[in-house]
Amino acid sequence: MITFDTIQGAHDRIRPYIHRTAVLTNQTINDRAGAELFFKCENFQKIGAFKARGGLNAVLQVAQNNEGSAITTHSSGNHAQAVAFAARQVGMPAYIVMPRTAPQVKKDAVRGYGAEVIECEPTLDAREAGVREVMARTGAVLVHPFDDDRVIAGQATAAKELIEDAAQDRPFDVILAPVGGGGLLSGTALSTHYLSPTTRVVAGEPEGAADAILSFQTGRVEKAPYINTIADGLMTSLSERTLAIIRTHVSDILTVSDPEIIAAMRLIWERMKIIIEPSCAVPLAAVLKRKEQFARQKIGIILTGGNVDLGKLPF
């Protein structure tokens, strides 16, 4: 069970290695949404995404507990970079299984942190088989992208900072995060539950990878009816672990289309002058799509990352 002490311990552990990222506002976007929005800018985080938090919390504990001499994981991008970055901090080799279709910019970044990239076919079965082969060959310890309490506790520190830095005068009515495998959403929901229990937590999900909303409704881990979205970081299904936390502590999951994601992404680029990736724009897209649901409320949004391929912008 992830308690508040677990999250506080994770924060203390990773604090020397991460940025306490800015919380930004934008009047034009507030006017467009009809609400008061506070953006937690994890696109400014080490490795350009919130996943540095969970990767560090897990890898630091593997090293401290002498659980193994190497690290492995499978990821299409940001978690791969997080684990490679964290392994470098503790001087451990990292073996990262990545689908061959992963953005080249993310593969290059993983190699830049000193990790070995093992490419595989773009299926979950291929990714998991690749990790099993690495573990058998090297004895590496698996740091799963989201189905790991240590990763979830690390991700929870982003919402913890958001609440501490922007909700001292008045609590948030809602905090939104995107959902893929559910590590960030689970952590966000837990931090909010412990620190701001009157605040609702809502997830944004692409229509083209809509497994979490089905799982949320049925209580079972479901597969998306189809996978076709620009939000490449949100294509993963939930795990039993993340689904249990989400069904306990999340109020709703809202889906948005790719055109709505692209419009929200462009709005942030143009009005806030910051770089975000498509997956990052999903929660804002949900707010803009359902203005009446969020009207006049104080809203926190986790901006998850900025690792976008600048040669393939959607606008």
From TrEMBL:
UniProt keywords, alphabetically: Lyase, Pyridoxal phosphate
Cofactor field: pyridoxal 5'-phosphate
InterPro entries listed in its UniProt record: TrpB-like_PALP (IPR001926), TrpB-like_PALP_sf (IPR036052)
Q: Which SUPFAM superfamilies match?
A: Tryptophan synthase beta subunit-like PLP-dependent enzymes
**Transmembrane regions listed in the UniProt entry:** none
Domain of life of the organism encoding this protein: Bacteria
Q: Please list the GO terms describing molecular function.
A: ATP binding; D-serine ammonia-lyase activity; L-serine ammonia-lyase activity; magnesium ion binding; pyridoxal phosphate binding; serine racemase activity; threonine racemase activity
| Residues in Tryptophan synthase beta chain-like PALP domain copies | 15-305
One GO biological-process annotation of the entry reads: D-serine biosynthetic process
Q: Which family does it belong to?
A: Belongs to the serine/threonine dehydratase family.
Under which name does UniProt file this protein?
Serine dehydratase
